[in-house]
Amino acid sequence: MNIVLFHSTYGLRPAVHAAADRLRAAGHEVWTPDLFEGRVFDDVEAGRAFQSELGKDELLKRAILAAAPYSERGLVYAGFALGAATAQTLALGDEKARGLLLLHGTSDLAENASVDELPVQLHVAEPDPFESDDWLSAWYLRMGRAGADVEIYRYAGAGHLYTDPDLDDYDAQATEATWRTALGFLETL
Question: pTM, whole model, 2 decimals?
Answer without folding.
Answer: 0.97
